[in-house]
Write a structure and sequence with these properties.
single chain; 6 helices; alpha+beta
Length: about 190
Amino acid sequence: MRHFWGDMASSVSGTEEVRVSGLTPLKLVGLVCVFLALCLDVGAIVSPAWVTAEDQYYLSMWESCWKPVSSVDWSCSSALSTDWQIATLALLLGGAALTLLSFLVALVSLCIGSRSRCYKPVAIMLFSAVVLQVCSLVLFPIKFIETISLRVYHEFNWGYGLAWGSTIFSFGGAILYCLNPKNYEDYY
């Protein structure tokens, strides 16, 4: 009981000890968003299924494969044969590199406990990654439909979806790192 009243007295008299932590919910959730974006970027880049067509065709960032209806063998070639495919991959890799760099900066910032010095650079890098990835994800289906004519039903598959997921998480992380920490850190 004595301990309880002692704590009460110190908080009433204004001598209470303030605990300041470098880890806030905004930093933590932002870092998790950036980590998820990075994981989804890796999954999208290595995915074999950006476009698929009824067990007759698939296209990834690296190769294009097709199988004639009467055959059981797949024929594959490099997907980097056209300018738009190279541009799509370059934009996607550029966004992934910026996401990786922002993750590393945010992680180091979290580990060394710098309060808000790295918020702005991380947010700028993430917004830049979002711009690059959105450009690649808009370019890809437009040029695919314009240049490749498939006579069977085809769909943009999970690799393309992972890339959009990465873009969304990067955008979320950028917004979290844009929030003014001075307004929120007092509550934590």
